[in-house]
Amino acid sequence: MESIASNLEEIREQINAACIKAGRKPEEVRLIAVSKTKPASLVREAFDAGQIEFGESYVQEFLDKYEDSLLVNCPIEWHFIGHLQSNKIRSIIGKVSLVHGIDKLSTAEELSKRAVQNNLLVDYLLEVNTSGEASKYGMQPGELLGAAETLFHLPNITLRGLMTIASPDTALAQIEFRQLRKLLEALREIAPEPRKLTELSMGMSGDFEEAIEEGATMIRVGTAIFGWR
Questions:
Q1: Which residues, 6 or more positions from 106, have their beta carbon under 8 angstroms from its beta carbon?
Q2: How far, in Å, CA of 150 to CA of 61, rounded?
């Protein structure tokens, strides 16, 4: 059985190769280790192997790990990558470095409200449903620009970019990744501070190389690091 350390090393090599193939610098792509459903002991093993950024999808599971004695003193950068209900925002605010899954204007407004109440500055990504699948969360691509004017001016939160979960077919996924990149470019055209819109969170264990080719700045990899859940 491969170790988490060797899995991480292999993925980093694949990231480097994909970046070189795409004419990009490897440091332009951040690896988010998706640790949902995995115990704190495996997160610690990945941390000890040099992994700093971890993605969680379930609020209570994240809070348990955040407070776990194995991890509490580790300088981990936590990302919340799952669907986030408005009533759960108060539980994670101030504990994560980036919220990936804001999928509608009302949730962004609640995030802003909580950030103001807690005197915090919070970075977030908008989730876009590029595949059109009804089972997936996210704004429809056609809704994005219309909501942008309101989103840009919500206090204490900063839109940093976009996130998507693509189709399982890699050929379709690459088209969807390209669409997300073009949406980010369109957002920059109307943003009051376009330099802040830098992130494309897209690509997982089975399609991160295609995502890197299309401009991903963050890839979310779980299975290839920790094995099947």
A1: 86
A2: 32
Instruction: Return the closest-CA partner of residue 210 out of 164, 144, 157.
Output: 164
**Structural domain count, the chain:** 1
**Alpha carbon of residue 162 to chain centroid:** 8
Host domain of residue 218: 4-226
What burial class does residue 55 get, using C-beta atoms within 10 Å of its C-beta: 0-12 exposed, 13-18 middle, 19+ buried? buried
Give the CATH number for residue 48.
Answer: 3.20.20.10
DSSP 172: H
Count, residues in the chain = 229
Per-residue pLDDT of 124-176, as tens digits, reads 999 999 998 888 899 999 999 999 999 999 999 999 999 999 999 999 999 99
Task: Express each pLDDT in 64-117 by its tens digit.
Answer: 999 999 999 999 999 999 999 999 999 999 999 999 989 999 999 999 999 999
Q: Are 177 and 164 in contact (CB under 8 A)?
A: yes
